Amino acid sequence: MKTTDSKKETTPKQEVKKGVTKPKSNAASGLTELFEDGLKDIYWAEKALTKALPLMAKNATSPELIDAINSHLTETEGQIERLEKVFELIGKKASAKKCDAMEGLIEEGKGILEETEVGVVRDAGIIAASQKIEHYEIATYGTLRQFAETLGLTEAAALLEETLDEEKGADKKLTEVAVNAVNLEAAEAD
Q1: Rounded distance between C-alpha atoms, residue 152 and residue 89, angstroms
Q2: Residue 124 lies in a domain
Q3: Which end of the chain, C or N, has fewer beta carbons within 10 A?
Q4: What separation in angstroms does the CA of 100 have from each of 48, 73, 75, 178?
Q5: Residue 60 backbone dihedrals phi, psi, to 5 degrees
Q6: What is the pLDDT of residues 85-94, one digit of tens each?
Q7: Phi and psi (nearest 5°) for 96?
Q8: Which domain holds residue 86?
Q9: Whole-number pLDDT of residue 16
Q10: Is the pLDDT of residue 1 over 60?
Q11: Could you give the angle at which helices 31-59 and 120-150 cross, rounded to 10 degrees?
């Protein structure tokens, strides 16, 4: 004799293993949402940098470092415009979501200003803090560019690639300033 189970079949919920973080109710469920969330995050980050970079330039003493920071500030303003174009391309209003990582990196940079004397040692600290920021941005733009390519958003990918190249260039310029002048002078201050 065959018996049938009278229980209603349901789609099984994914079992959350012990120690695995439970997602928020508005968590991204697809690559498009993750891409959009990343755009909001870096949009906030770039806007925050337009306020932080002038402070770094004001506290730097090396003319080459001041020039590198001011040059990157101009690039950052263009990067914000480029991000707005990416939002437009995907049919979304440009909006920012607080970037905890960038907030922390900016705060770390401010801390370096408080913990160093004005001069070459502070300049070396500014370069170190700035390169941490650049490396975060390089990682973020590289990821977003790849997401855009995967999603078939070729124009958005090209815009993100342009910004990625600028971030790599800014990092290289900071390295040159550090290696060719600032770090050597800071070492002599010991």
Answers
A1: 12
A2: yes
A3: N
A4: 11, 21, 22, 27
A5: -85, 155
A6: 999 999 999 9
A7: -105, 145
A8: 28-182
A9: 63
A10: no
A11: 160
- Is residue 190 in a domain? no
Q: How many structural domains does the chain have? A: 1
Query: Is 171 a member of any domain?
Result: yes
Residue 166 lies in a domain: yes
Among 50, 51, 47, 55, smallest CA distance to 95 is for: 47
SS (H, E, C) 11-43: CCCCCCCCCCCCCCCCCCCCHHHHHHHHHHHHH
Task: Quick: pLDDT tens for 51-86.
Answer: 999 999 999 999 999 999 999 999 999 999 999 999
Tokens of 190: 């010991």
pLDDT band for 7, please (50, 70, 90 cuts): very low
Provide the CATH number for the domain around residue 107: 1.20.1260.10
Q: What is the model's pTM?
A: 0.86
